[in-house]
Design brief:
The structure holds three protein chains of three kinds.
Chain A lengths: L7 H26 L14 H8 L7 E3 L5 H7 L3 H9 L33 H13 L6 E6 L6 H12 L4 E7 L2 E2 L2 E2 L11 H5 L4 E5 L3 H16 L5 E6 L17 H10 L2 H11 L5 H24 L26
Parallel strand pairs in A: 1-2, 2-3, 3-7, 6-7
Antiparallel strand pairs in A: 4-5
Helix pairs in contact in A: 1-2, 1-3, 1-10, 1-11, 2-3, 2-8, 4-11, 5-6
Chain B lengths: L5 E3 H15 L3 E5 L15 H5 L4 E3 L4 H13 L4 E6 L9 H8 L2 H4 L9 E6 L14 H6 L4 E3 L4 H13 L4 E6 L6 E3 L13 E4 L4 E5 L2 H14 L5 E5 L2 E3 L3 H11 L2 E4 L8 H12 L9 E3 L10 H7 L3 H11 L1
Parallel strand pairs in B: 2-3, 2-4, 4-5, 5-7, 6-7, 10-11, 10-13, 13-14
Antiparallel strand pairs in B: 1-8, 6-12, 9-11
Helix pairs in contact in B: 1-7, 3-4, 8-12
Chain C lengths: L10 E6 L8 H4 L7 H17 L4 E4 L6 H9 L6 E4 L8 H11 L5 E5 L2 H10 L5 E4 L13 H12 L5 H4 E3 L2 E6 L2 E6 L2 E5 L15 E6 L10 H5 L10 E18 L2 E14 L4 E2 L5 E5 L2 E6 L4 E5 L4 E3 L1 H10 L6
Parallel strand pairs in C: 1-2, 1-4, 2-3, 4-5
Antiparallel strand pairs in C: 6-17, 7-8, 7-16, 9-10, 9-14, 10-11, 11-12, 13-16, 14-15
Helix pairs in contact in C: 2-3, 2-6, 4-5, 6-9
Chain lengths: 334, 327, 332
């Protein structure tokens, strides 16, 4: 009768995923500092519970659209970290053959529609995926991840509105980490929760503690089941915090050290979840240490793979612009 | 061959859409007033009745969202959306989705994504619609890598190119000149595909080459017919697609005639016209017998008053003058 | 700060919770978001009303959204009331409410609480003997009033200005006390539910199949939430000196509205009246305790619950205004 709402296996997967994201991101920060990872890198440290809690309710066929801060989504959805690490390095073995980098990691084979360098750019893509799902009579869902900054963009408003009027199986997940680069949330919107915006589009919306993976899991489960059952879209605001700057190298002068330390001490999603699992005897300190070690090894293996992979070749520049070849000049080169 | 019936450019486009909707369940349409209203220019009339609201989406005015939806649907491989941008001038409110998303996804993702979608958009001056409802803008779209850009001039080309565009796995910006919607011409009933990247020599000639697009094709042909009586033989080439570009046909013609006039309705700077001139200069320099002439509007927004708009749009007189100047 | 000495303190406290009205009930039931601008609007109505009845000073809990601050800005220069914000560093969680209540209880004559059952539960932990005027911001509350803020502020003014005495215009509510190893661990105002949920998660309760026991201070067939399960068996009024205990299991089926628009069939194994101060030992441990509808406590060892009369003193606005009217409260 009292069947568990969530299996131990799933709980452990969630814990491992959060640790994997954390280890990956901290390693990425080091690699960036060592000039091994070029370009712009936006890390997900501190926000692990959001991607994990949401994706824990998805299957492989479900779609997600991601953001510039997309490593966490990619890893949670099951993306191959060797391919993404090589991509961060700009190597030919990367998931984008070195043409995308951190801001564009992708794996369509697992429904990951790609990280996106344009704030809010991916929101309507998830709506489109949901349209495809609905028209093909599938029972999949699509999830759009985006931040508080994106919730001021037209693509947020238009995407939600279209999903609402067409009643599409999509869940909008706003990762409100309190800052749009430097501008605090309180100076972006006159409301205190992105969830308040759901009402304007006639869809259910809820605000949840994004540092509590169980709370995120539970809210996402309801929203996703709702979408899967054909009841239409919903909006989740997960209140979270990034433990690192907007991008690597950000001096973060817009927030106090005290504030950051408070979040790290009181609201670290991994510490919070670990405490719960320890209390419930689902995890021991030994298990936790082992998971940490295992994840570090996995990431190290990915780093080695990336480092030893070849660079793309000059002639690759001209490839992959178009899918369908045609007559005439398609890719111009003087 | 029997008599080929004549239908309008708008009807030809409708036939292409109807054909693809009937043959491929993945093809859907999204756009403003395309359903009940049948399209602002009547192009999509009857499609909602035939295919229903699950295939023909009458959308709110939210172009960025609509294109984004089309991109997402295409990226999954689940659909092949045809999005109608009512006026191409409205690209400004949705350009990010066109050039940062649709155009670049395949490349940024290392060739992993196929964005099989068409953006149909009405463009062109001549209706007194002023500066925000009259532009053609194919130059702008062809500037951006990753987009295919089609600008048909005849009903038959419109039908054949649209079928090919919908079947293409890349994002295609398909620009329909609204001054041509009512123009009738012979169009085969069967779905004859016209490949992208193949120019059409609308009239053969030996003295001078005119490269013209959309409505300018008709004006150039008018000049060619008129001057033929004086013994001037003009070759009129319609590239039909700007990306891909049938460079060979253009280059060969210039080499043959040694003279080039480009006639285009888009703005003159960093444009299709200058692009063709650059091709002529870099690839046909030795064969050129005279300077290349460009007949385009001035670099101003499009004026409203019929008295001004008439002067703004390249005229038959201006084309004729340009031809005479380099002969 | 230059605080005037009044013979009677006519300062009113305001606690408005910016976090209420946005939880998972929006997804699992048919509740909708209670937006913060509506709370700002409520405070505007409260301030203008208090001012009209001669209140000169208000003490406010600062909050992460600035509900009262925004209301002040809207009213602008027409606002003559002296408004002080408590020196609290806001965290955006229940601790703000607790700390604000603790700090204001000796400085005000009444506290207006804008929030739901959860907010009031926190206020009740610290408000002592100060009368409170609880205003509901949601659809799933039993403790606070669903009423027009203007009228609520009138009732507060009538009490604070002495037209109606506290003895006449307020009544003491019951509360539930939770004891673990003879120590008071927590309280609830309306109900405690024992649930087999394995984690606290999104807090609200909508899976009735996981419920095991429910203890209530009051219940009726015309209220919503977990207490309605008991209320649909027997009504217990807030003025009656007892509560109700029930166990869920094989037995008679009862239909109850446990959340807005969510009707569940629940099988009642047994139930009984629980007298004031009578201890009841909860039977299902380990489990989670939901306090006033929210999963709060993870319990692993013996827990006792009892009902007492030590709940907060709440203003009876109808009685208060009836008496005040007779005494010329509404005359110029």
């Amino acid at each position: 009768m009292n069947k568990p709402v969530i299996s131990e296996e799933k709980l452990l997967w969630m814990y491992e995923t959060m640790v994997k994201i954390r280890v990956h991101e901290e390693r990425a920060a080091e690699l960036f500092a060592e000039n091994k990872v070029p370009g712009f890198v936006h890390l997900y440290v501190g926000e692990e519970a959001v991607a994990t809690g949401v994706v824990a309710n998805l299957k492989k066929e479900d779609f997600i659209s991601s953001t510039h801060r997309g490593h966490g989504h990619y890893i949670a959805k099951g993306g191959d970290i060797k391919a993404s690490m090589a991509e961060l390095f700009g190597k030919t073995t990367g998931c984008c053959k070195g043409k995308g980098g951190s801001m564009h990691i992708v794996d369509l084979s697992i429904g990951e529609l790609g990280a996106n360098g344009i704030v809010g750019g991916g929101i309507p893509h998830a709506v489109g995926a949901a349209m495809g799902i609905k028209l093909n009579g599938l029972d999949d869902v699509a999830v759009a991840f985006f931040g508080d900054g994106a919730s001021n963009q037209q693509n947020f408003h238009e995407g939600i509105n279209l999903a609402a009027i067409w009643k599409l199986p999509v869940v909008f997940v706003c990762e409100n980490n309190g800052y749009q680069i430097s501008l605090p949330y309180s100076k972006q919107q006159i409301i205190n929760s992105v969830a308040e915006r759901g009402k304007s589009y006639g869809i259910p919306a809820v605000s949840v503690d994004g540092q509590d993976v169980m709370a995120v899991y539970e809210v996402a489960k309801e929203a996703i089941e709702r979408a899967r059952n054909g009841e239409g879209p919903s909006l989740i605001e997960a209140k979270t915090y990034r433990f690192r700057g907007h991008f690597e190298g950000d001096p973060a002068i817009y927030r106090t050290k005290k504030e950051l330390e408070w979040w790290k001490e009181n609201k670290d999603p991994i510490i919070i979840f670990k405490k719960l699992l320890l209390e419930k005897n689902i995890l021991s300190e030994d298990d936790s240490a082992l998971i940490q070690k295992k994840k570090e090894e996995e990431i190290e293996e990915a780093v080695k793979f990336a480092e030893s992979s070849p660079w793309p070749k000059k002639e690759d520049i001209l490839k992959d612009v178009f899918s369908t070849s045609t007559k005439g000049v398609l890719v111009w080169e003087w | 061959m029997g008599m080929v019936r004549k239908i309008s450019y708008a009807q030809a486009i409708n036939e292409a859409l109807d054909y693809k909707l009937s043959k491929d369940k993945k093809v859907i349409m999204i756009g403003e007033d395309i359903g009940t209203f049948g399209g602002t220019f009547g192009v999509t009339a009857g499609l909602l009745d035939k295919y229903g609201p699950e295939r023909i989406y009458d959308a709110p005015i939210a172009e960025s969202g609509q294109i984004g939806v089309a991109i997402g649907a295409a990226a999954t491989g689940l659909l092949r959306p045809v999005f109608e941008l009512m006026f191409i001038d409205f690209f400004g409110v949705c350009m990010d989705q066109i050039y940062n998303q649709a155009a670049k996804m395949r490349y940024m993702f290392g060739g992993k994504a196929k964005i099989s979608m068409v953006i149909r958009a009405a463009g062109g001056a001549g209706m007194g619609a002023a500066a925000q409802h009259s532009q053609l803008l194919h130059s702008m779209f062809s500037h951006l890598p990753g987009l295919k850009v089609v600008v048909p001039s005849t009903p038959s080309d419109a039908k054949g190119l649209l079928i090919s565009s919908i079947e293409d796995d890349d994002p295609v910006v398909f620009i329909e000149h609204k001054g041509l919607y009512a123009v009738k011409g012979p169009v085969p009933e069967e779905p004859q595909r016209i490949p992208l990247g193949v120019a059409d020599v609308k009239r053969e000639g030996k003295d001078i080459t005119i490269v013209a697009t959309a409505a300018m094709v008709y004006k150039s042909l008018e000049v060619a017919t008129k001057l033929y009586k004086e013994g001037i033989s003009i070759e009129v080439i319609d590239p039909r697609s700007i990306v891909p570009l049938d460079e060979n046909t253009i280059v060969n013609s210039i080499k043959k005639t040694g003279r080039l006039v480009v006639v285009d309705e888009d703005y003159p700077r960093a444009s299709f016209a200058t692009d063709i001139a650059a091709i002529a200069a870099s690839k046909c320099f030795k064969e050129l017998k005279s300077p290349v002439k460009l007949v385009t509007p001035p670099a101003t927004p499009i004026p409203f008053s019929p008295a001004l708009e008439k002067e703004w749009i390249p005229s038959v007189e201006k084309i004729e003058k340009a031809v005479r100047e380099i002969l | 700060m230059n605080e005037k000495k009044h013979k009677v303190c006519t300062t009113v406290g305001i606690i408005a919770n910016p976090e209420s009205g946005k939880d998972i009930r929006r997804l699992v039931s048919h509740a909708s978001v209670f937006d913060n601008m509506e709370k700002v609007n409520i405070v505007e109505r409260i301030l203008t009303t208090l001012q009209a009845f001669g209140i000169r000073k208000v003490l406010v809990m600062p909050d992460t959204f600035g509900i009262v601050l925004r209301a002040i800005n809207v009213i602008g220069k027409n606002l003559k009331i002296d408004i002080d914000f408590l020196p609290i560093e806001t965290l955006g969680n229940w601790k703000d409410t607790y700390e604000a209540t603790r700090q204001m209880k000796d400085k005000v004559s009444a506290i207006i609480v804008i929030g739901g059952d959860g907010t009031n539960r926190i206020v009740a932990k610290a408000c002592g003997d100060v009368p409170i005027m609880p205003l509901s911001t949601g659809t799933n509350n039993v403790f606070p009033y669903m009423m027009e803020a203007t009228i609520a502020a009138e009732a507060v003014a009538a009490i604070v200005m002495g037209f109606t005495s506290k003895e006449e215009g307020t009544y003491k509510r019951k509360r539930l006390e939770i004891f673990q190893e003879d120590k008071l661990k927590d309280i609830a105002l309306i109900d405690i539910a024992v649930t087999m949920h394995s984690y606290i998660g999104a807090k609200a309760i909508w899976r009735s199949e996981l419920l095991k026991e429910i203890v209530v201070t009051q219940c009726s067939p015309y209220n919503i939430g977990l207490s309605s399960i008991a209320g649909n068996i027997k009504e217990i009024r807030m003025d009656e000196n007892h509560g109700f205990y029930l166990e869920i299991g094989d037995g008679e089926m009862i239909k109850a509205a446990i959340a807005p628009g969510v009707l569940k069939e629940i099988s009642i194994k047994n139930f009984r009246i629980l007298n004031l101060d009578e201890k009841v030992k909860l039977r299902n441990i380990p489990s989670l305790l939901a306090l006033d509808g929210e999963r709060e406590l993870d319990i692993n060892s013996d827990v006792y619950v009892k009902i007492t009369r030590d709940g907060p003193k709440v203003i009876n606005y109808q009685k208060t205004l009836r008496i005040a009217a007779q005494r010329g409260f509404f005359k110029n």
